[in-house]
Amino acid sequence: MKNIFIYLIIFSTCITSCTKKINPPTNLQCEHLDNPLGIDSPSPRLTWRIAQTEKAQTAYQIMVSTDSIKLANNKADVWDTGKIDADSCLVTYKGDSLKPFTKYYWKVTVWNEKDTQSKPSDITSFETGLISSSNWAGKWISDGQDVSYKPTFYFRKDVNLDKNKKIKSARAYITAAGLYELSINGLKVGDRMLDPMYTRFDKRNLYSTLDITSLLQNGANTFGVILGNGWYNHQSTAVWDFDKAHWRGRPKFLVNIRLNYEDGTSETIVSDETWKIHESPILFNSIYTAEHYDARKEIEGWNMPGLDTSEWLPAVIAQAPSPLIVSQQLYPIRVTERLEPTKIDKKNDTCYVFSFAKNIAGIIEIRVQGDKDTELRIKHSERLYPNGRADMSNIDVHYRPTDNSDPFQTDIFILKGGGIKETFSPRFNYKGFQYVEVTSSKPIDLSKESITALELHSDVPQIGSIKSSNPTLDKIWEATNNSYLSNLFGYPTDCPQREKNGWTGDSHIAIETGLYSYDAITIYEKWMNDFKDEQKPNGVLPSIVPTHGWGYDWGNGPDWTSAVAIIPWEVYLFYGDSHLLHSMYGNIKRYVDHIASISHHGTTDWGLGDWVPVKTVSNKELTSSLYYYKDVTILAHAAKMFGRKHDYEHYTRLAKKISNAINNKFLNTETGIYCSGSQTELAAPLYWGVVPEELKSKVAENLYKKVEEDNFHIDTGILGAKALLHALSENGYADAAYTIAVQETYPSWGWWIVNGATTLYENWNIDAENDISMNHIMFGDINAWMYKALGGLFPDENKAGFKHIQLRPNFVKGLDQFEAKHTSPYGEIVSSWTRRTDKQIIYHVVIPANTSATLHLPENIEGDKTMELSAGTYNLELREIKR
User: Fold this and answer.
1) Is 629 helix (H, G, I), strand (E, B) or coil?
2) Are the C-beta atoms of residues 530 and 200 closer than 8 Å to each other?
3) Strands (E), 240-314
4) pTM for the whole structure
5) Among the CATH numbers 1.10.10.10, 1.10.10.60, 1.10.260.40, 2.60.120.260, which is that of 136-330?
6) What digits encode the pLDDT tens for the residues 775-807?
């Protein structure tokens, strides 16, 4: 390469005269989880990584056994692939049929490019669950109350275990319509919150598998369950009418507690009418609003052995909510951070306002001492009135209360008194907030130590990071991540306060942002099953998923519900795993065919359009047709992958028809302008790939002139915000895109940051009267732009999962240092650059083992513009051409 000095750090292969084997594979996972329990798939996916000290894998061997000792001695009684010549690190299990309630141990050995065999990996495991619904025993049980009855009940089961038999392992398989909390001998089982995940309850219920071995004791044991309403028995009233859901019923649960003894025998304790119930202190709980708790009604030892339950009632047998119970294989919701207040503002002896460092989704834990009967109202808000009190006017706009008994985002805690410090934290609710106002019916004394905010979300591992020399850019990245996580609760939502709905448009706009930074495949695979349950026979999908029926007549259309195609496709690109795309193929096809049936000329006006624009309204038919085009191209690619030749040919022709129709109707070929030439109308066709090749430079130039006319500020809604920065960066105007991205005056992401934002907002105008939730993810694609445009990290659809990496960094003017890291299925990719002088740039790259990359340098760099890189670490000294 001309004028470029390359310093290559070659990894040692650790092959010497005294070393016969290379380092073993690591990061073994089953179904993209570590040592999972409750696997129901008959053919689970197994993945691993080879040591970073190697260049490539040329072969592998997987061994699976039910006996870890035998496996350690290379004896596999379930599956032994033998040596398979392949570089894949993702393999579908094809051994003996898996049995329920069984632990399987497995290990991997690989060979490198020199055909040197590795040491075997550490032995890891996965454990099957019930596998078939026929293996469930027992009965669904409930408290027998009407759906409108507000208090919830304790459920209790006393069991005496044989003192002469030693327990080897014990599992609780539990599902609920609503939410549950399981305890054993007074201790909560595990750290999951808001379990199980929300589904279309009349079609699919999820069960969790919990390891309870350490909680059991010889002799007397007590199992306790408390149920919450969740989305199943929605007692609060809002515009979406979830209180009218046809599935609505009293919360219920089914549990099988399986005990495996050292002597090889087992027994199962089940839910049935022998469980006893008693009203609990939880007077009311709503996933949408809050939780009310009366400590005076507590029963000490309600879930511990030795309690007199003679006045408790028998549980009531209930009908199963759906015929389908499947294993919940995803990262659960957990408390991920505990935040102490940064400030306390005492208004008087009965009113305190607590401030926290950031806006979060979660709950509080309060510790307080006071007189008996004292009622605390704990109000959660995102902002304060000028007088310092909690202001919820921006988030309660869709709430439609029928009385004053269910205040929005306001927990109610009634003290039992007695001179002791009492603790309360909601079990079955979460809220969006940065401020907490506590008012009391009698004077109380609170301090900073009295309250803690507990951040909640699906606990997906972080696998990406951004770091730069621009503090505003870094804060935008952090705020975007905060909003992404605040809206991940077993399904992606729009906001954690006023809606909590699975808006399809918000989710596909933020999908790349999510997958670059977080290992979220398990969440999206679960959510796509919800799409299957919601799709009409004619292919139509609702705008929110799950739903009880709202959203089929408003808000849907390709600009939103293209999530059905875009999300499986992006998961495939990021993970190289086609399972989800293959599973959703029929659903995507029905959806596309429906649009085709109502769009005979190739374009469609079905959709919401460029939602919440700054000032310019863009053509809705253009944006909807572009998403229709994207869906069809995804379907054509998938058809080719899966060998569906007829479909591939058909949808390839349809994609061409749509792009031609878009250009014929909306593109002025003389001027290179689409429609009226708004930022969205120029950026979206470039981003989605319909602009004729010979006109790309003209359209891109027009887009640049448009943003220059707007003084390099954004003038789009959420669809344009997804496209704008990418369209500029990918067509020679990366400097302009960066200038827009780091603007600190209105309208911009930076404008939010300099005004104190720790999350992304719903509206560019922070003083807007409507659409001003302060924790929305719908403008969140900017993080994906950072990884792609500045870091240059692009997956290659021909070798997905970053098996081959397309590196396209832009060394933008005004930024002195930038680093992007992403842990792909093969290991960590690093793309980092530092500007040493006006013209000299040091570019640092790490390509993981078993992968390769093509580096594409921008036009302003001297020398050749492409370079092929194998696995390894590189430092390139680059020189910019004078601009």
Assistant:
1) helix
2) yes
3) 252-261, 266-270, 276-279, 282-285, 291-294, 313-314
4) 0.97
5) 2.60.120.260
6) 999 999 999 999 999 999 999 999 999 999 999
